[in-house]
Amino acid sequence: MIEDSPGDGQAPPGSQWYDADAGPLVRPYAMTGGRTMPGPSNVRFDLIALVVVDDDPPGRTEESLLGPEHRALLTLCRAETQSVAELAADADLPVGVVRVLLGDLLEAGFVRVSRPVPPAQLPDERILREVIDGLRAL
Q1: What is the 3-state secondary structure (H, E, C) of 57-86?
Q2: H-helix or E-strand spanning residue 51
Q3: Residue 75, SS3?
């Protein structure tokens, strides 16, 4: 219970209560067990990589062993396919933490990740312009 200091109506320093506006009281390194890299394979998740729940995930027993942040990410992924950036925003967690947690889920077989196409593999702009010009000529 917070007690006001006598006479001034102010609480003594250090006796303030935290509320939802104060943010998470669990530090990010505690959520990831002090890890900064996702999983033993050091998978790197791009911000636009899409995450979806695996078609054949492990059972509910294994899921119950996960931490609350892992389960929150799984719940978000079950609702719809989301990018890493969207998951971080919706879960209100730092992107680095989400990447580590997704690495855990990927290693355990709960999720699948589709990575964006690298720019070097995209079609050449000249070819696309030729296709558009050809379609206009029809």
Answers
A1: CCCHHHHHCCCHHHHHHHHHHHHCCEEHHH
A2: strand 50-53
A3: helix
Q: Do 46 and 115 meet the contact criterion of CB atoms below 8 Å apart?
A: yes
Pairing of strands 82-83, 50-53: antiparallel
| Contact indicator for 47, 95 with CB cutoff of 8 Å | yes
Question: CB neighbours of 33 closer than 8 A, spacing ≥ 6?
Answer: none
**Tokens matching residue 112:** 């699948």
Residue-wise pLDDT tens digits, 35-90: 766 666 667 788 888 888 887 777 776 777 778 888 888 889 888 888 999 999 98
Closest CA to 31 of 75, 67, 5: 67
Residue 129 has phi, psi (to 5 degrees) of -65, -40
Asked if 84 and 120 touch (Cβ cutoff 8 Å), the reply is no
Euclidean distance between CA atoms 9 and 3, whole angstroms:
9
Q: What predicted TM-score, i.e. pTM, was given to this entire model?
A: 0.61
* Among candidate residues 41, 36, 14, the one with its CA nearest the CA of residue 98: 36
Distances (CA, A) of 113 to 57, 82, 123: 13, 10, 23
